[in-house]
Amino acid sequence: MTEEASFDYVIVGGGTAGCILAARLAEDRDTSVCLLEAGPSDEGDIRVLELRRCVEVMGSELDWDYSVVPQERGNRDIRVNRARVLGGCSSHNAAIAFKTPDVDLRTWEELGAAGWGPEACRPYFDRLFEKVHTEYGQTDNEWEQAAIAAAQEAGYPLVEMGKTDVREGVGWFLLHKRGENRESSAISYLHPLDQLPENLTLVSDCEAVRLVFDDEPNAVGVETTRGEFRARREVVVSGGVVNTPKLLLHSGIGPGHHLKEMGIPVRVDLPVGEHLLDHPEGVVMWESTAQVPLESSQDWECGLFAKAEPESEAPDLLMPFGPVPYDLFTVAWGCPTAEPGRAFSIAPHVLRPRSEGTVRLSSPDPFAKPLIDPRYHTDPDGWDERTLLFGMRLSRKLAEQPALKDWVKRELAPGSDVQSDEELSEFARRTGNTTYHPVGTCRMGDAADERTVVDPELRVKGVGRLRVADASIFPSHVGANPACTTMMVGEKAADIVRGRAAPVEAAETAAS
After folding, report:
1. To bridge 91 with a disulfide, which of 87, 100, 344, 416 should be the other Cys (CB 3.0-4.6 Å)?
2. Are the C-beta atoms of 321 and 304 separated by less than 8 Å?
3. Are 127 and 207 members of one domain?
4. CA 349/CA 317 separation, integer angstroms
């Protein structure tokens, strides 16, 4: 398809939220919907479909394979893997399924995202989990059971994760999977692709270049590598936390000073690409005294939620347990490693980080990779660094519990000689990784707030007939893996675009 085509709605990006939005809009059979995806279809690709093989997607042709710019206080070698395939990052993530903690949705409302509180969003999670099958991962791995027991010995209760609000405790993660296969948004809402409704057109291998506007200005379409696609009603950008701001910037929507630097005419001066948030991650790794079972759904199927500060309203840390060596950056630091089956790891994540980064253009060339600067551990009060340090020390505490102690031969990374706060923090920051949880680069909130890009109706300020629906709209980060929150955005966006009220359950819940 290379000629100009016209539809009621054009959705740019067949990712975690975009697939859901397209499927829901197409339920109105008198409405035509076009879903554009830069990458290929996921259908039949076992690297995507089999959850255990998700690491094979990273660095492949199904990955945008971005990287961070040199970091002042973090790891400068991090690869920002973003899926370039139908289903987006729900097609290559670890499939960990958490509803958004209520405390975070209340924060969204306080930050100006009216209508996005826990009561209003709950019905959309209900819809989501009616479509996306979830189940718990492996439960008979002896080492995983020992890790869970060690957390209980350290004073953390065993909890059922994923089906209730997030709270302190240890347990098995709920996963969006069915047996050995993942349940991405593409699989759950669009498959089989040869049975899509006639009013839903999927165009894959179609990269967006820039948006098209009339003189109002209204968004009327998108220019792509496969021609121009016109929207009679609206264009919705669902390209993700990196590619959505990239497309808006190339279309003249963004910080005026940056667009002028790039030689791009300024259409609307908005803080596009600001407010990048991610969950920074550290790692502690041990060599084992015995063979560590490798049987696992995706290597990280259980873990611990903990508070770094007792007065915190909700857990500050998520600490997945891995029956694998996690030496991606520790070997380069000089730490020894071990073969699979002879090592295990704990990887603390900082929830609700306070360090904010940016996504910027590197060139006016729309096909050039952007500049991604998470600015890890640069928040002025040092919250992120302190929280990660607490998680590193808690990881060691778990390894000292009776259930895990007999598994420990020696600490491989950072090593038992690293003890001071300064040394341990430097190791954690310099060898840490992204959790692949970026959010926030097209921040949602009150339209009068100069920090926001979209209003609570997801409309891009200063432009007509243009919305954004993906994780880039998050007003603040959430205290859990964000995949299901992003899926919820797709569900809720469909009702917003169609002008429908929230499901009646929301009003009933709020009144009770």
Report:
1. 87
2. yes
3. yes
4. 6
Digit-coded pLDDT (tens) for 447-461: 999 999 999 999 999
Contact (CB, 8 A) for 90 and 39: no
397/424 same-domain check: yes
Element (H, E) at 34: strand 33-36
Which tokens in the block code for residue 292? 């560590």
Peptide bond connecting 217 to the previous residue in cis, omega within 30 degrees of 0: yes
CATH code of the domain containing 396? 3.30.410.40
Among 279, 349, 437, 477, which one carries the catalytic annotation? 437
User: Are residues 81 and 49 located together in one domain of the fold?
Assistant: yes
**Confidence class of residue 502 from pLDDT cuts 50, 70 and 90?**
confident
- Asked if the peptide bond before residue 414 counts as cis, ω within 30 degrees of 0, the response is yes
Do you find a cis peptide bond into 192, omega within 30 degrees of 0? Answer: yes
Is 275 designated active site? no
Report yes or no on 293 lying in a domain: yes
pLDDT tens for 15-42 read 999 999 999 999 999 999 999 999 999 9
Q: Is residue 393 in some structural domain?
A: yes
Task: Using alpha carbons only, give the angle 152, 157, 159 rounded to the nearest 5 degrees.
Answer: 120
The CB density around residue 380, as the number of other CB atoms within 10 Å, is 7
How far is the CA of 319 from the CAs of 209, 335, 339, 473, in angstroms? 39, 21, 22, 26
**pTM: predicted TM-score of the whole model, two decimal places:** 0.96
